[in-house]
Write a structure and sequence with these properties.
Elements lengths: L4 H11 L10 E9 L2 E9 L9 E7 L6 H8 L1 H8 L2 E5 L19 H15 L2 E11 L1 H12 L7 E4 L19 E6 L16 H11 L7 E4 L10 E7 L8 E7 L21 H9 L20 E7 L6 E8 L3 E8 L10 E5 L2 E8 L6 E9 L2 E9 L2
Parallel strand pairs: 3-4, 3-5, 5-6, 6-7, 7-10
Antiparallel strand pairs: 1-2, 2-4, 8-9, 9-10, 11-12, 12-15, 13-14, 13-16, 16-17
Amino acid sequence: MRSFYPYLFLFFTLASVGIHPIFGQEKIKEKVEIDGLTRKYRLYIPSSYDANEPVPLVFNLHGLTSDGGQQQRYSRMNEVAEKNGFIVCYPNGKNRAWNVNFPFPSSKADDVAFIDQLVDHLASSYTIDLNRVYSCGFSNGGYMSYRLACELSDRIVAVASVAGTFVPKEIGNCSPSRAVPTLHIHGTADPVVPYWGGLVALSAEETIDFWLDKNDCASDVLKTKLPNISKLDLSRATRYDFKDCSDETSVVLYRVKNGAHTWPGAKIITGITNKDFDASTEIWNFFQQYSFEEPSGLRSRTQIPQSLESLRVVPNPNNGLMNLQISLSESLPVSRAVFNLQGQQLRPTETQMFSKGSSEWVYNLTDLPEGIYFLKVKYGTSILTKKIIIRP
């Protein structure tokens, strides 16, 4: 793998120049302090965004030596987000890398915790549908998306990877709490993360077999050759669908014959890039099938667990004085905190022990101006974010 580093550097150098981003409602560069580290990210907000309507959130993770800005330009997912009305976030890994336990120096940051807390941070600033949060990525970002599927399956509904698999020795550490819908795209001539596997890369087909096993899928597969729309790209794509899986999930492989270490449909060409389909579009088409809501059977951390039988904010809207009506099936400590639309916490976190049964917790925010705020309630290991509206 080390012999491919110059190729990788050249690829991302080319990816950083020569293309103009599209202009929608908002392209935002922001940073957040998490666990003592300043982490940066880019955000695209579609022009259809309405703060009164929850929208899906897609993380799009860059490759090794790259960053969020380059991944934004390379994948062109902003165009898909604008058309389909979802928010897309391009975070930056530390040292231009994601911590997937590569056996060479890259990043040692706790990137699972970073994405976990970034979901909450974004939900405190925007009206995110926490039942529809997804992650995709290129190369190292694909590895990281799979790590999120393994360790954050209560938050990330579905994942997709383009040219990224697993470090082979890490495969035994993957224990998702449920079946995770998975889409994988890979070129058979990829010299960086070989389709057939290598020292730090599980093969694409071994990766698919792993998810088929984890998702308890049947062996039946639907094989579809994509139309050869672009005969000049020197590649052909075939789609393999495994749909008979637990919780109505599926596993999908796009096998790109002769494809290099590239993002299909990209306008930046650094190797054989398939033009018969657009990876960003197909990723969204796959993601939008799944949510933590019924009837998929998938379960979200934001859904009320059995220990918390009900939680209501009464009244809502209110004048700043409200009751949190809590009903517990067991005794639990419950904490609360309030945030503004910019994600700033406005009150110190308060924690109180509640006994089994029904209780009320008075919350006085009458000194806050009229507007929309977010109340974060934590009970045990679960977190629920509720929008509250203060009016005179």
